[in-house]
Write a structure and sequence with these properties.
Distance between the termini of chain A: 22 Å
Largest sheet of chain B: none
Radius of gyration of chain B: 25 Å
Structural class of chain B: mainly alpha
Order of helices and strands of chain B: HHHHHHHHHHH
Distance between the termini of chain B: 90 Å
Number of strands of chain B: 0
Oligomer: heterodimer
Largest interface: A-B, 62 and 51 residues
Radius of gyration of chain A: 22 Å
Structural class of chain A: mainly alpha
Shape of chain A: globular
Strand content of chain B: under 5%
Chain lengths: 286, 252
């Protein structure tokens, strides 16, 4: 069984790579390099903050887009190409087919996030080295203490340990979106419908925490609004929980317990959405 | 159809089962100082519908970066009022970013205030001075709000100290701000000296300044800067410190 799932995952990954999704990395690279060149007129610390804002924001957008578009497309495409019939006529259970597909997409998302993180780190490192070289030239006659302070202000603004969990949370959010899109695509009749619904859920999911608070804290609202916020709280994922990049860029630390809880919630969503997808897909007429 | 309805029901059940987990994570994240930004109607009015949607959808920091660049462009055109409005929005979007609070305060207290004093369109010098002081206060207000959002920031206390010292000439306030900064982690070594210098100019706190600077002096030669030595010597005279307890460094 595992061999079959791995084979489907590998094929899905290869298929997506052949669709040249990695060209998005070029756009990301341009964003990163462009922002670093454009920001050269700002103060050093501001430059680094802007590079982080632009790069992590772009990482979040690109991974979310890739997760939704790649997942929405595969089921209608396999039905249209009739490859799904070839596959399912073999001893491949439907859930294994879905799991293979989802695994392939998640592996692609991981690699994609990793490559973007490498480009981002390279741009940040190059800007850091340029800034340090400038400081060493400017502070040539300054005291050791002043030079140390100036160097510290640059190094503190660039890399910190929080970047790693922050980037991993961006990846987990994209995996969640892939699983959610998979669930929608098992219901949907077209890729366009799946993309539209996934995009709507993306926006509503960011408001789920607000809806949940309004529902559970007994805020004074009309009965029909209460029903609406209850539905949103129950059916939609809490995407704000995965929105830690903003705080991380601002220098807030992400403690390990927070990261692990967020990580666990993300994979729980993935597991739930996958199980429901398998349940719906098992009864779907092909 | 029945299967689809059952799946939606199961989705609701699993959603209900996950609510305690979501609430717990929400509390843990908030306890760690994360997800504290309030996105309210006031912000909605300032950033517009699309901006608000972007902020809600997880693109708060890129939006703040974009508005910051707008503020930078406004600075180049010396549109101070527009800058202040943009700074308010940026700091609302990213209240944990020390850089935004610091830069907003700097632009208001240093750049806008000088422009107000040199404003050729205002013939009354009294009004120009009044406008200048308003920009000083606005700069201070950014740092005060920044500290409310980041109460353990040595950096913002340091910047507040500098503003109070250089712009408002409030030596007691500056000394207090530097003192707080010096007691926080990640402080710079010179901040404690700054606290001593400012407290030495604050009536009634000379003894505290002396004790602080003497303690630094006793740490060794790396702390014995010319300003520290001269300030200590002035305080020894003022406080009438017995000769045997006075420092024996030559007058710088």
């Amino acid at each position: 069984m595992l061999t079959r799932i791995t084979a489907i995952a590998r094929n899905t990954f290869t298929d997506l790579v052949r669709q040249k999704v990695f060209y998005i990395l070029l756009v990301f690279g341009l964003c990163a390099i462009g922002s670093s060149v454009f920001m050269a007129q700002l103060r050093v610390e501001a430059q680094f903050q802007m590079i982080k804002d632009v790069c992590l924001g772009a990482m979040s957008i690109f991974t979310s887009l890739l997760a939704i578009l790649a997942t929405a497309n595969f089921l209608p495409k396999d039905i249209e190409d009739r490859t799904i019939y070839t596959l399912l006529s073999k001893p491949v259970p439907r859930f294994a087919y879905l799991l293979g597909k989802l695994s392939g997409i998640i592996v692609l998302l991981f690699l994609f996030t990793l490559l973007m993180a490498v480009v981002f780190s390279a741009v940040l490192w190059l800007r850091q080295q340029a800034a340090l070289a400038e400081i060493r030239t400017e502070f040539v006659s300054a005291s050791a203490e002043e030079l140390q302070q100036a160097v510290k202000s640059v190094t503190d603004s660039t890399f910190n340990a929080n970047l790693v969990p922050g980037i991993l949370i961006i990846f987990i959010k994209s995996a969640l979106l892939a699983a959610l899109t998979l669930l929608i695509s098992t219901f949907a009749s077209s890729a366009l419908f799946t993309v539209m619904i996934a995009a709507a859920i993306y926006f509503i999911g960011h408001l789920q925490a607000t809806a949940r608070e309004a529902w559970l804290q007994g805020v004074d609202i009309q009965w029909w609004t209460r029903i609406l916020v209850a539905i949103i709280s129950l059916l939609f994922p809490d995407l704000q929980a995965f929105n830690l990049a903003d705080d991380m860029i601002a220098g807030a630390a992400i403690p390990w317990n927070v990261f692990l809880e967020t990580f666990a919630l993300g994979w729980t969503y993935v597991a739930v959405y996958f199980a429901l997808s398998a349940f719906v897909f098992a009864g779907r007429e092909l | 159809m029945i299967r689809k309805a059952a799946a939606i029901l199961l989705l609701g059940v699993s959603g209900a089962a996950m609510i305690p987990f979501q609430k717990s994570l929400d509390a843990t994240q908030k306890a760690a100082g994360l997800r504290m930004t309030a996105l309210d109607l006031d912000l909605r009015e300032r950033v517009g519908q699309m901006g608000f949607l972007a902020a809600l959808s997880g693109f708060r920091s890129p939006l703040a970066a974009y508005l910051w660049i707008e503020a930078h462009n406004a600075w180049e055109r010396t549109e101070w009022g527009r800058m202040a409005g943009l700074f308010d929005t940026v700091t609302t979007l990213q209240p944990r970013s020390l850089l935004y609070w610091d830069m907003a305060a700097w632009h208001m207290a240093w750049n806008a205030s000088v422009a107000a004093l040199d404003d050729k369109s205002q013939p009354s010098e009294a009004l120009r001075i009044r406008n200048q002081r308003q920009y000083f206060k606005l700069g201070r207000d950014y740092l005060d709000r920044g500290l409310k959002n980041n109460p353990n920031s040595a950096f913002l206390y340091e910047r507040l100290g500098v503003l109070l010292r250089d712009k408002l000439e409030d030596h007691c306030g500056a000394g207090e701000a530097f003192l707080k900064a010096s007691q926080l982690p990640d402080t710079s070594p010179y901040i404690a000296r700054f606290a001593g210098y400012e407290l030495s100019k604050c009536a009634g706190r000379e003894r505290e300044a002396y004790d602080l600077l003497k303690k630094l002096y006793d740490k060794g030669p790396e702390e014995r800067k010319p300003t520290l030595i001269s300030t200590l010597q002035e305080l020894e005279k003022k406080l009438d410190v017995p000769p045997q307890q006075r420092i024996n460094s030559p007058k710088p």
